[in-house]
Write a structure and sequence with these properties.
Two copies of one chain form a homodimer. The first copy, chain A, has helices at 11-18, 22-30, 39-51, 58-65, 83-95, 114-120, 133-142, 164-177, 194-210, 225-237, 248-261, 294-310, and strands at residues 70-76, 101-107, 124-128, 146-151, 159-161, 183-188, 217-221, 242-245, 270-274, 288-292, 323-326. Chain A is of the alpha/beta class and 331 residues long. In chain A, the strands form two sheets. In chain A, strands 7-6-8-9-10-11 form a six-stranded mixed sheet, with helices on both faces. A five-stranded parallel sheet of chain A has the order 2-1-3-4-5, with helices on both faces. In chain A, β6, α9 (194-210) and β7 form a beta-alpha-beta unit. In chain A, α1 (11-18) crosses α3. The longest helix of chain A has 17 residues, at 194-210. At the A-B interface, α4, α5, β2, α6 and α11 of A face α4, α5, β2, α6 and α11 of B. Chain A binds a DNA duplex (30 and 30 nucleotides) through α2 and α4.
Chain lengths: 331, 331
DNA sequence: ACGTGTCACTTGCTCGTGTCACTTACTCGT
DNA sequence: ACGAGTAAGTGACACGAGCAAGTGACACGT
């Protein structure tokens, strides 16, 4: 009976099994509207499909329709922190009920992204971070159906702004609220992070300006406690009592540097991070940081994709409530 | 001229442009063997293709050939640590020259992986970790061309064994070499990590047995310094002087717990982690840990995929040199 | 009896490639 | 002069699904 299940069942097989034409099978399985099909037939076909374990060939479908059911999550090649992993998982879950499959690809700048796009013909592409104009042109040329860009601004209607500046702003506001007058900023040396760095720093600057504080004293931290020690010395000399770190990793380097220099945190110098990485709760002292609610971010991304694909509904935005300060002991 | 570049160019368009048949175009672009084509024609076609920016439709090609050029990297839904990110990037780079595109998908156990498989029809699937028999059966049924499983054993020829036990073994050996007689093991409470936990622990056990030490004193650590403090108290009462932590995150919780309890690391209790996460260098004290060379792991994975797909060459194994102890101060 | 409408389907074309089989034209050995 | 062999290329058929258009059967109104 089932002897020849070597090959995958096609809709043709289902049609034969149910005693109807292939088209009918197609109509039934796709719930094609404006088609009148008696329940008896429908049942027969559905059962036949189940019996043969039929599942449509994605490539054939894609060929016919012009796009697949894959949503491509395009990530830059720099370290994006664990928050992304959580977002990815949530996003995949949000997209599943719509029949969309999420796959991730980290984009290596050596290779054009045409490859990935063409290899998948995705229904939508979500990319995080900003790319160069070259990549922009490539995407344009590839005629992507929907493009959700998670970036800083909302210059195009398909863009979903992530409140990056607000992260810096919240850091600064927290420091100001706890009595700090002179604020420092610890930037990463990694060049590829510049977009994020600049925007977070911009947020810090804005907050300082609004609160009537001096502009932040910016120092670059290398991947080494010694560089942190040096920066800390300079900050202290300049009267800085609170530092906003680019993220928790930089904050941890700062903590290590402070330890070496005999500087007490938060008494001599307060430190606040970003991302609330798992380890942040276990540093010495535990790190005060800004968290991101991956759930809400993912929900908005999913919403943008669905709206873009179906053309119905309205695009939301990422609410500022995705960010929150987790107060521990470092600030 | 270029006015109608709205639609993507097909091989038909290239054929017309070059004044040959579509078949010829196909032969040339695919370097089909046993075909005699004069250089003049070849050039003409290649130029026409370039001029029209022709790139073959992945779906059509996939439909015809039965599989795509996508390699699917199937990840489990538990937190796998940053090492994976590095491996992913390396792997993608290794596969590119073979015309293969790597995409990742984290597998949610609620949903069967049929979806992803069918949505991509990948040329190969690499999965890390062990899945249940249900998923195994699903994969079997889906007739995957090559399956590289990164797991503990090498029970099937397509499996690539990752020396997980060896990680635990190296931890224990390092502790023993630095004079510790009684060894503890700090396990994570997360149930999904059990495969990894059990194997690392197994390595620790083996090493202890071989070195003539007592079996390790295993304690489970919750995501909370208090639970670490408790475990540390019990270890010290039992005469344990060195602890192997499941990974650096657990090790960090241990460090935090020790701090609270006034236990000095490494003098009162040595701690060694695993993974060499970025933050490990900046803890107090800096964490001694076992690193994984993502580069070598990725190279072997790529090798397995290529061998499996082309049928030529020989499958290598992951050398034990991928692991190394980074001695810092915690042990 | 005849036109119209709806139901329940089916026929046939299309998406873009890969590839087998087949046709010319031309060269060469005997 | 003639068959064999090769170079250079073409025609036609899959692959599996979606969809526009068509078809026969029956019901209903006049």
């Amino acid at each position: 009976m089932e002897h020849a299940s070597r090959r995958r069942a096609t809709s043709q097989d289902v049609a034969k099994e149910a005693g109807v034409s292939r088209t009918t099978v197609s109509y039934i399985l796709n719930n094609t509207p404006h088609q009148s099909i008696p329940d008896a037939t429908r049942q027969r076909v559905l059962e036949a499909a189940a019996r043969l374990r039929y599942t449509p060939s994605a490539s054939a479908r894609t060929l016919r329709r012009g796009h697949s059911d894959v949503v491509l999550f395009l990530l830059p090649d720099w370290p994006i922190g664990h928050a992304i992993a959580a977002v990815t998982e949530q996003l995949a879950q949000h997209l599943l009920p719509h029949g969309l499959t999420l796959v991730s690809h980290t984009h290596l700048r050596e290779r054009p992204l045409d490859d990935v796009w063409r290899a998948l013909t995705p229904a939508a592409v979500i990319r995080v971070g900003e790319f160069g104009p070259v990549e922009d042109e490539q995407l344009r040329q590839a005629q992507i159906e929907v493009l959700v860009e998670v970036g800083v601004s909302e210059s195009s209607p398909t863009q979903l702004a992530f409140p990056i500046q607000r992260m810096g702003r919240m850091q600064a506001e927290h420091l100001a609220a706890t009595g700090h007058q002179r604020i420092g900023y610890a930037a990463p040396s990694e060049r590829r992070l510049s977009v994020f760095r600049d925007n977070r720093l911009h947020g810090v600057r804005e907050a300082c300006a609004e609160l009537g504080l001096d502009l932040p004293d910016v120092r670059t931290i290398e991947n080494d406690p010694a560089s942190a020690t040096e920066a800390i010395g300079q900050w202290r000399a300049a009267g800085v009592t609170g530092v906003c770190a680019y993220n928790d990793e930089i904050a941890m380097i700062l903590l290590a540097g402070a330890r070496r220099a005999g500087v007490r945190v938060p008494d001599d110098l307060a430190v606040i991070g970003t991302d609330n990485m798992h380890a942040a709760a276990f540093t010495d002292p535990p790190l005060t940081t800004v968290t991101i609610d991956a759930c809400q971010v993912a929900a908005q991304m999913a919403n943008h994709v669905i709206v873009g694909l179906t053309g119905t509904g309205t695009r939301g935005r990422i609410p500022s409530s995705v960010l929150d300060v987790v107060v521990r002991e470092s600030a």
